[in-house]
Every structure is written in C-alpha cells, then in structure tokens.
Amino acid sequence: MFDLGLTELLLIGIVALIIVGPKDLPVLFRRVGEFVGRMKGMAREFTSAMNDAADQSGVKDISKTIRTATNPVKTGLDKVGEATKEFANFDPLSETGKLASKRAEAAKKLHEATANSQDNNKTAKSESNLEESEESSSEKIIKSENKK
To answer: Do residues 17 and 25 touch, judged by C-beta distance below 8 A?
Structure first.
C-alpha cells in the first residue's frame, strides 16, 4: 500500500525511538496497531457495502456477460464442452440415433461404391495401356520384319 521497505521501516522506528523515548514506544506501537486495525475494518466494510450495492443493481451480471463476450476462446471452449456433453448423452435407440445409423450405412455404401469404381477405372486404364503397348510392340515387330 505505501511501498515501505525494510530500511524505511527501520528509519521510522529509530526516529520514533528518539522522539517518543524507549518508555512510551510500546504504547505508541499498540495505538498505531489499533488505528491500522480500525482502518482495515472500515475498508473491509466499505468494500462489502459496494459489492452488495453492485449485486443489487446487476452490475456483476453485466460484467460477466461482457467478459464472456470479449473472450471468444472461452466461449468456443464452452460450446465444445456442451457438444461433448450432448454427445455423451446420445441414445442410439432414439429417432436421431436411428437416422444417424442409416446415414452411416449409406455413407459406407457410397465409399465402397466409389472405391469399386476407382478400382474399375484403374483396371480399365491398365488394360488399355497394355493393349496399346501390345499394339506398339506388334507394330515394331512388323516394321522390323519389313526391313529385313
């Protein structure tokens, strides 16, 4: 609060010892301690009164809303947490669960059909490449025989 270091406190203690004297110094420190205690109590009471007034006027709700609005990362993580909770509560026997299983089966069939058509295309390409290479080989053989 006052940012007093050890050396400053030591200097204040020495000055108080010289001015007040060693006989009255404990009484002075006791009174200063009581004064500081009363000031802390008053500050605590004032702070609690201000917090109560803020609670009654709804300032905390508004400040919470503003904090969540200005922190998109936390808001995003909250939404992820909510989605995780919803996923954990998923019932496979519900209508949504039945639709999800139908969609998963349809997606699997689609993937299989796509993979089969890609395999067929690869096979057809390799066959056509093989035919072309056979034709070019036979043409080379014919040309070489004609040269002879």
So the answer is: yes
Q: 126-131, long-range: CB within 8 Å, 24+ apart, which pairs?
A: none
- Total domain count, the chain: 1
Does 72 fall in a domain?
no
Question: Angle CA(135)–CA(137)–CA(140) in degrees, nearest 5?
Answer: 110
For tokens 């917090």, name the residue. Answer: 51
Domain span holding position 116: 98-148
In a domain, 90, yes or no: no
Interval 88-120: pLDDT, tens: 566 666 777 778 788 888 989 888 888 888 777
pTM, full prediction: 0.36
**DSSP 8-state secondary structure symbol assigned to residue 5:** -
